Amino acid sequence: MAWSIYRRIRRNIGRQPLHPRRAITSITILSLVSVLIVGTSLQNTNLLLGFGGGLLLGALLGFAGLRLTKFETTDQGHFYTPNTHIGVVLSVLFIGRIAYRFIVAGNAATAQNPAQPFQSPLTLFIFGLTVGYYLVYQTGILIHNHDKNNSVKKL
After folding, report:
1. H/E element, 22
2. In the chain, where the domains are located
3. For a 10 Å CB count at each end of the chain, is N or C smaller?
């Protein structure tokens, strides 16, 4: 788990190689998880509103993140440098909220009605924020890569 956290935060710091397949995989997985969350939350309007609000705000952050991203092409390939602040803050928010929910669920396990880890509108808001950001950001990286490849072929 610690390795996953390290990799997530590491992808938000410094120059990154542009891997279209990785972006497509991320978009696919995040889209599937989003559909599952919406499907399981249909009975609870607060959960849907939390997730939907997070998606919307995350998408706006994704557009802001793309504007702050630096793209470069060298002999070694295509690279991008994401805005460190946005990515790290989102990762820390998400990881912190999940850790908090598991601690609360662990303490409530001895209670009669333990809290469900993903049945909180705030948790789904933060998850939606992360998903919305990465969906827009990864899509923007793919579009930039596609545009860059087409402009190189035209020359």
Report:
1. helix 20-40
2. 20-154
3. C
Contact yes or no for 91/8 (Cβ under 8 A): yes
Alpha-carbon gap, residue 44 to 4, rounded angstroms: 30
The C-alpha atoms of residue 70 and residue 155 are separated, in whole angstroms, by 22
Residue type, 22: R
Q: What is the pTM of this model?
A: 0.81
Residues linked to residue 80 through DSSP beta bridges, in sequence order: 16, 71
Token pair of 78 as six digits? 């295509």
Reported residue count of the chain is: 155
Which residues sit opposite 16 in a β-bridge? Answer: 80
Give me the residue label for tokens 């399981």.
40
Residue with tokens 């696919």: 28
Per-residue pLDDT of the chain (155 residues; tens, 9 = 90+): 566 666 666 666 778 888 888 889 989 999 999 999 899 888 888 999 999 999 999 999 999 999 999 988 888 888 888 888 888 888 888 888 877 877 776 666 555 555 555 678 888 999 899 999 999 999 999 988 776 665 545 44
Q: How many helices (H) and strands (E) does the chain have?
A: 5, 3
